[in-house]
Structures are given as structure tokens and as C-alpha cells.
Specification:
This protein is α/β, with parallel strands linked by helices. The protein is 34% helix and 17% strand. It contains eleven helices and twelve strands. The strands form three sheets. It has an eight-stranded parallel barrel. Strands 6-7 form a two-stranded antiparallel sheet. Strands 9-10 form a two-stranded antiparallel ribbon. It is globular and about 55 Å long.
């Protein structure tokens, strides 16, 4: 999880002061959970997969092709979003042989046994030194999938709100020049291949950066009525406002037919005083789950949110101290931090 987009949020605050899938047979529908592994005390992957089944969590996101996790998910009905490490994107983009090699190692052994819905080329690498490689990597890997008759696996990438130069009001949503330079080609690929874009959305960070101007109920889906008005659209929660800013940014580049999957969202249960309690985290994630599975979408794009994932399965002790270690739905001993599922 990268937090550089917080700069965008702070700039926005100063200015304020103020379930369906496109064309995929096996794609993730509804809610899922990110399976992060930055911890030295986490349970074996076989036990983690059993937890997904026990709590009826239908979708899983992996940040990289971890062999233990991929082996453990074999033969289940879990729909998987499989990540490509940021540093591996350039080698896949460099040649068709590079894409074929990545596929042979990380996908081919699991074909027919693992329900791979998405392969994500990088996580929050727009903009970065690797961003220019994403489109080429998508094109080469798409050729590989086509050769193996696996075109039901959709290729995409994961961006954060840091790609936006403006996001308030949502109708002003626009990519930064650096992001726009690569996003136009990426969106063209996604549109042509009927694949969604993935987006990490964290209302918590906006609220935590200025709880005076950003209402807690607006950040937690609990506001009793509209809080923000933008033309003829009204926003009762910050999540929708953030997502719609990205829809507008995509439209500004000429793409109004690309859906979004929310690749990460959540609320930490500790690490920042009374802004991060198990009660607040439970409220946010239950409401987020309900919002995603309802299929209602956003004010601008009804039905446009094509599923979402909660961040994350576990509290991970090898992340930086503070909120970073406290995003998990479960402790490493597999006990719920607070109730969300079941």
C-alpha cells in the first residue's frame, strides 16, 4: 500500500476549506479480501485458504505469485486476482519471451485448478520508473494468454488516488500530466479487452488528515443524507466521491466504458488514537462490503464498481509500526479483530 496520494488529499482539503463484470466468465463478483504476507507469524497458506472458505469470502487478491498460496487455493471456488511484482513488469514488457517465461512459471502450473480472474500488472506504479512498461507488459502477456486460450483471464493494473491532479469536486477529476501520459494507453488496452481498471481507495486517510473538515460519518458511509453536491449529483459518502473523481479522470482521456474494481479499501483498527478503533474499522468495512455487494455503483456511474477487496486479511507485524500493522480483519492466530464476516 502506497500513501503518496495523501499529498493530493491534503491539497484537496485546502481547496475545500472546505456487482457485475464486463465480459468475463470467471471474474470476481462482489467482495474479496487482500491476502498480504508481510509478517513473520502468519498461519500457513493452507489454513488461510480454509479461513476464506469458513467465512465464505469468495475472492482473494495476492500481491505476487506466491507458490504456497497458489498451491493452497487449488481446487477451490475462490476467484483470484494475481499480482505481478512491480519490478517484474519491465521484463514482461521487454519481449514476448519475457511474458511467456513469467506465465510458464507463475500461471501455467495452476491452469484448470485455480480460478484466476485477473492478473494485475503492478501495484500503484503509476507514475513511477516502471509505469512506461505497463502497456507493453499487458500486450505481451495478452498474447501469451491468447495462445493458451485463456482470454477469460483479464489483465489490468492497480492505481491509487495519487494519480489524480484534482479530485474535489468529483467532476474536476483529472490525472496528473505524468499519470495521463501512460494512462491513456493503458485505458485503451482495458477498453479494447473489456477489462476493468483497479483502484485503491482509502477514505480513512482523507479523514485522518483533517477530521475537522471531513466528517467521520461521511468517511464511514453513515451520513444521514447528502454531504457534497456536485452539479446534479449528490454524495452521501466520501468513497463514492473518490471513485467518481477517477471515472471523470478516465472520461477526460476519452474513456467512459472502463469499469472499476476496488483493489483495496479498509480502515485500521489501531495505531492512530481514537481515529483507529476496532469499532470504527468494523463499521467501515461492513458498510463497504454492503456497498460493493449491492451493485449500486456510484452517483455518476451506477453499476460501475465491479467488485471490491478489503485490505487486509491479517495484521502484519513486519510493516512499519502504527496504523500499517493494524489493517487486518484477523490476528495472526486467526481470531477476528472485529466482526465483519459471519
Amino acid at each position: 500500500m502506497a500513501f503518496t496520494w495523501l499529498v493530493v488529499v491534503l491539497a484537496t482539503i485546502l481547496a475545500i476549506h472546505n456487482y457485475q463484470i464486463i465480459g468475463t466468465a470467471n471474474a470476481a463478483v462482489g467482495i474479496g479480501v487482500n491476502y498480504g504476507m508481510v509478517g513473520d507469524n502468519l498461519p500457513p497458506s493452507t489454513e488461510v485458504i480454509n479461513m476464506y472458505k469458513q467465512y465464505n469470502i469468495p475472492n482473494m487478491r495476492l500481491f505476487d505469485p506466491n507458490p504456497n498460496a497458489l498451491s493452497a487455493v487449488k481446487g477451490t471456488q475462490i476467484s483470484l486476482s494475481l499480482g505481478v511484482r512491480n519490478e517484474d513488469v519491465p521484463s514482461i514488457a521487454s519481449s514476448q519471451a519475457g511474458a511467456d517465461a513469467w506465465f510458464t512459471t507463475n500461471v501455467q502450473p495452476y491452469v484448470g485448478a485455480v480460478n484466476i480472474a485477473y492478473i494485475t500488472l503492478g501495484n500503484e506504479i503509476v507514475p513511477s520508473e516502471f509505469a512506461g512498461s505497463i502497456l507493453g507488459a499487458m500486450q505481451n502477456l495478452q498474447n501469451t494468454l491468447t495462445t493458451h486460450q485463456l482470454t477469460n483471464i483479464k489483465l489490468t493494473t492497480v492505481i491509487s488516488m495519487a494519480t489524480l491532479a484534482s479530485s474535489y469536486p468529483p467532476s474536476t477529476g483529472a490525472f496528473t500530466p505524468a499519470a495521463a501520459a501512460v494512462m491513456k494507453g493503458i485505458l485503451g488496452f482495458l477498453s479494447q479487452n473489456q477489462s476493468p481498471l483497479m483502484l485503491n481507495v482509502y477514505p480513512y486517510f482523507a479523514y485522518a488528515s483533517d477530521p475537522t473538515d471531513i466528517r467521520l460519518d461521511y468517511a464511514q458511509f453513515t451520513a444521514p443524507g447528502p454531504v457534497v453536491h456536485d452539479g446534479n449529483l449528490s454524495y452521501q459518502n466520501l468513497f463514492d466521491a473518490m471513485v467518481d473523481a477517477v471515472f471523470w479522470a478516465m472520461e477526460s482521456l476519452g474513456f467512459n466504458n472502463v469499469g472499476l474494481v476496488v483493489s483495496e479499501s479498509g480502515w485500521p483498527s489501531a495505531g492512530n488514537g481514537n481515529m483507529t478503533t476496532p469499532a470504527l474499522a468494523s463499521v467501515y468495512n461492513k458498510n463497504y462490503l454492503q456497498h460493493i455487494t449491492s451493485g449500486v455503483g456510484t452517483p455518476k456511474r451506477p453499476g460501475g464498481i465491479l467488485g471490491g477487496y478489503i485490505f487486509a486479511m491479517f495484521n502484519e507485524d513486519q510493516k512499519p509500526a502504527g496504523v500499517e500493522q493494524n489493517w487486518g480483519l484477523f490476528t495472526p492466530d486467526m481470531k477476528p479483530v472485529y466482526p465483519v464476516f459471519g
